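Justification of resources, computational component.

The compute hours requested in this renewal are based largely on the per-chain cost of generating structure records like the one below. Each record pairs the submitted sequence with a full structure-token output. That output is archived, and it is also reused by downstream analysis tasks.
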Amino acid sequence: MKRTINIFLTLFVFLSLALSACEVPGGGGASNPTPAAIVPIATEPPAAAPLPTPVPSPTPIPAPANPNLILATTTSTQDSGLLDVLIPLFEHQTGYVVQTVAVGTGAALQMGEEGNADVLLVHAPSSEKTFMDNGFGSDRRLVMHNDFVIVGQADDPATIQGVATAVEAFQKIAAAGATFVSRGDQSGTNTKELSLWNSANIDPAGQAWYLETGQGMSATLTIASEREAYTLTDRATFLANKLNLQLNILYEGDTILLNVYHVITVNPAKQVNVNYDGAIAFLKFLTTPETQALIGEFGKDRFGQPLFFPDADKTDADLGLP
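The structure output for this chain reads:
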């Protein structure tokens, strides 16, 4: 009997151990937990962020073989401030270094004849044609225009306001013996003034009321203001200096007062040492649509009107020039 009980106990222990070995860990009859999500192990590193597209460096401007360029021009283009805008832009775009000599058109043309300038920006069409006809110029292109005006004191002692023509205004100034200040420097302005006296059949030379300064437009305007006199000026230089002058525009609008500017390259066949490549570069620069647009906008911010009107897309005939 005791042996039978021992056998039973032995079987009970054996069955208990067998059942324990079959239980899922974490037993106690608890249900199997939901297995955690399997995260795959990366076999390659994450792709690197794309690099920004490199900005190409600007193409360097090749240095001209001869970077020095001499521009002979009128005092009006200098005094108006236009060249202060155009020259730095030209230098930046091309690599040329410009030496500007601002004189009257007559002196500028003389510099070209003597080979002391490479390119000219002038405004005396009849003198320019002579220059070209004599072979001193190689290329000549229309650039821009504005106009001449007659300025004087507000009280207008010669009563030129309201007259029909510029010639009539000059006749009235002479008849009144009113002081007239002339540049007297063979500039484009002086050339226009003398043509008006000639059309009026008047020789002002030596007259007590006629004063020649031999100076540029700004200086001549200052003297006319101080002398309470009349003078002929391009509109751009007058507007640029108006705040410092006791002068008003008393006559304007006659078509004879058109003031036209051309760019001329000096002929390398006449003057072998001129910088013809630089001169051509400057001519092309002045006549591009971009530069022409700058010329047409110049002065609007300060004076409410442009000081020059671009003309590179026109011909002399379009402006009524012979």
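Residues 2-22 form the longest helix (21 residues). The mean pLDDT is 87.
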